[in-house]
């Protein structure tokens, strides 16, 4: 037994020296009943990053910027870090405490204010200014202006006199430079006194007072940066070079390590959210993955705002004659398909009614059929007004946000549906979903209050680039939408027209008319095209958004257009446009199926 204990002790000693552990697990487990716990310095898995907290949103800001300006550029790492807001709890306990650095700077500021007084510096600055001013001999024609400038202590007056001097090297010009320097010192010290409250007794010279002012301003700037970093966890906004003048080297090293950890976390999240990093430039660019992620966030926001009576993303089940068989059954009704009969339940119903009589006879009330759900396709053309008036209050941004949300909804929820986008201005153009970000309201190129223009677009010497682009051509947009919808293999066709007012342009054969104020001729051409849409079974739903130029006549026209095609007019503010269009699409799809 003694030899065995000696061998065990020798084994334990050798293992501890070599690996810090022993293969004799019984000895280890008796001393550490909780098992082996590994601890890593400067990493807290519960706080950085939080496993239960969603990652920061890196793409929404970039897309909002792109929708506002029509394009987006690559983002540098610094720009990405500054744009993202983190939860400060994610960096708690890592590196030096921001509160500790803030207390250190506040203590430094307090000591300065309790050490010095400013009366002596003010007196010396005033004497230096007065002595410097008395030594200057201005020319007779500038003497009065010089005395007034000295008395009023206006730097711009003395600067004007310097430009009026005969030569830059004249005694008066050189003397003015000295006077302006002394005046600047005097004003700087006056600003120091008004900005800070000194309670000490040690007097300061003028250079010392200016040095103290610069130091206090640096401290205030660092305190502002630290306060913002404590709120947003943006370590990158802290000026490390400036902080180096006040903090200890060890604290700076730890803060720099924390900044690197935050940047690495941002870089990892950027890659996960579809921001592709260019190895050459180090900048980030948006990818289709980020595009889908942004659409998903838009839809999440829209459906999170649903009323309690309309909660849930998916529409209610629609029962009828369809291809998808459900588990529930119902009594047979005239017109139900015989292919959906539930034979076991039908036989059971007959047995319950007739008992054990032979032969078994079936009646219509015995027959049970499976409930079915129908999933027909829906074809939609969205006409987006990009005329000059859509720039008002950034309405074009709301239109593009709506288009992205609708495209994301159909792609994810109703992939069999048909969706097309049309940009409406003086002309009408089909736009792919990838082009939605780049759409911008057309610039107003003519400001006459009365416009009567006609262009023959069949002429070879006339091109679209020569035409004023900011008019509203609803007629041509409806025509283009009709041409796309009539070819679809579904009877469920609709046009979503988003505009802010009356049409001001239309085509008659190859002739383009641009008429402002809106003319009955344009309205008649638009109504004719709307009736053609109605004849093809196409419903027109008008979303009328507010505009500075909107009048009662705009609203009346929208009603006339909707009534003639059995459509609807929906009034909505621009900020709620995406929500209302999505709700309307889901609601219409449910009604069409029913």
UniProtKB/TrEMBL annotation:
Record's keyword terms, sorted:
Coiled coil
* Coiled coil feature spans: 209-275
Concerning InterPro entries, the annotation shows: vWFA_dom_sf
CDD domains annotated for this entry? Answer: vWFA
User: What is the designated name of this protein?
Assistant: VWFA domain-containing protein
């Amino acid at each position: 037994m003694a030899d065995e204990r000696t061998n065990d002790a020798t084994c334990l000693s050798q293992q501890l020296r070599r690996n810090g552990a022993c293969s004799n697990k019984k000895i280890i487990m008796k001393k550490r009943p909780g098992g082996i716990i590994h601890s890593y310095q400067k990493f807290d898995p519960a706080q950085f990053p939080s496993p239960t907290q969603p990652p920061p949103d890196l793409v929404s800001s970039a897309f909002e910027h792109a929708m506002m300006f029509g394009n987006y550029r690559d983002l540098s790492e610094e720009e990405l870090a500054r744009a993202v807001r983190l939860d400060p709890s994610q960096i708690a306990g890592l590196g030096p405490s921001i509160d500790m650095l803030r207390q250190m700077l506040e203590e430094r500021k307090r000591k300065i204010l309790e050490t010095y007084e400013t009366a002596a510096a003010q007196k010396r600055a005033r004497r230096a200014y007065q002595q410097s001013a008395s030594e200057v001999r201005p020319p007779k024609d500038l003497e009065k202006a010089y005395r007034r400038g000295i008395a009023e202590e206006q730097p711009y007056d003395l600067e004007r006199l310097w430009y009026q001097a005969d030569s830059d090297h004249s005694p008066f010009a050189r003397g003015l430079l000295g006077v302006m320097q002394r005046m600047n010192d005097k004003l700087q010290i006056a600003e120091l006194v008004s900005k800070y409250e000194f309670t000490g007794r040690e007097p300061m010279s003028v250079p010392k007072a200016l040095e103290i002012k610069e130091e206090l301003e640096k401290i205030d700037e660092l305190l502002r940066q630290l306060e913002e970093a404590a709120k947003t966890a943006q370590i990158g906004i802290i000026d490390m070079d400036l902080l180096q003048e006040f903090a200890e080297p060890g604290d700076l090293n730890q803060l720099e390590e924390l900044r690197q950890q935050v940047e690495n976390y941002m870089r990892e999240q950027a890659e996960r959210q579809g921001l592709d990093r260019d190895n050459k430039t180090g900048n980030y660019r948006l990818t289709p993955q980020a595009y889908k992620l942004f659409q998903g966030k838009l839809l999440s926001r829209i459906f999170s705002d649903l009323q309690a009576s309309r909660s849930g993303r998916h529409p209610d089940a629609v029962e009828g004659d369809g291809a998808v068989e459900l588990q529930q059954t119902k009594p047979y009704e005239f017109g139900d398909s015989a292919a959906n009969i539930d034979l076991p339940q039908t036989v059971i119903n007959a047995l319950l009614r007739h008992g054990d009589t032979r032969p078994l006879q079936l009646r219509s009330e015995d027959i049970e059929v499976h409930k079915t759900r129908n999933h027909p396709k829906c074809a939609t053309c969205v006409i987006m007004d990009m005329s000059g008036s859509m720039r008002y209050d950034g309405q074009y941004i709301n239109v593009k946000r709506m288009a992205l949300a609708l495209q994301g909804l159909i792609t994810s929820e109703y992939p069999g549906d048909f969706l097309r986008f049309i940009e409406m201005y003086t002309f009408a153009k089909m736009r792919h979903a990838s082009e939605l970000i780049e759409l911008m309201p057309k610039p107003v190129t003519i400001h006459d209050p009365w416009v009567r223009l006609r262009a023959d677009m069949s002429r070879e010497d006339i091109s679209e680039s020569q035409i004023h682009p900011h008019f509203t051509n609803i007629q041509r947009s409806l025509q283009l939408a009709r041409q796309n919808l009539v070819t679809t293999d579904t009877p469920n066709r609709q046009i979503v027209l988003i505009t802010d007012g009356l049409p001001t342009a239309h085509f008659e054969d190859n002739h383009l008319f641009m008429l402002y104020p809106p003319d009955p001729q344009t309205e008649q051409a638009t109504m004719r095209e709307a009736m053609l849409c109605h004849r093809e079974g196409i419903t027109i739903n008008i979303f009328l958004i507010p505009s500075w130029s909107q009048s009662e006549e705009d609203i009346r026209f929208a009603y006339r257009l909707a009534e003639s095609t059995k459509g609807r007019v929906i009034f909505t503010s621009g900020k709620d446009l995406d929500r209302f269009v999505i709700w309307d699409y889901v609601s219409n799809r449910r009604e069409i199926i029913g």
